[in-house]
Fold this sequence. Notes:
There is one protein chain. The two termini are 41 Å apart. By secondary structure, the protein is mostly beta strands. Strands 3-2-1-10-9-8-7-6 form an 8-stranded antiparallel sheet, with no helix packed on it. It has a two-stranded antiparallel sheet with strand order 4-5. It has 2 domains: 1-30; 32-166. It is built from 1 helix and 10 strands, in the order αββββββββββ. The chain has one helix spanning 7-30; strands spanning 33-39, 46-52, 58-63, 70-71, 85-86, 98-104, 110-117, 129-134, 142-151, 154-166.
Amino acid sequence: MAPVPGPRHHRFAIACLCALLTACTSAATRAGSLVICADLTDAELTHASFEHDAAGGLTQFDIVTPDALWPAPGQRETPRFSAGQSDVSPNLVAHPDVRVDTIAGHDGALRVIDFASRTADALPLDDLRGSLMLHEAFHDQHAIGSLYITASGHRASITPVLCRRFVPAAQ
């Protein structure tokens, strides 16, 4: 007859499960992630996306600006845009005319991405500036936030967004 698992076996099983979950979580964190933030009232309207590397550094950040078009070399003509144009900005982190700062919360997680053009006429949106703020920690890969964007000659907009985090599978 096989021994009946007792409290010691349960503690061992729980300890193994915790170790496995910790290993999987830390592997996913090391891999970096992609976050896409969409309008809370219409999930089809993406307003921002960003990627960060394993160390937590921001490597990609772009915004969608329905009021202005950005140059998009190689972009084919679509029903919405002429060839070479898009409402999606280029990577603002890599853009030499844009300052991008990040702020982490007390837990070390990214909470704010603040951005601004370095000179008033450096971008298609003159004097572009704004912030993406995550108002809560990610729960089940989702977090509520808001995106503030303004530029000369454009109304300031504050959009409530639902941000979804995509973590690559550990390899």
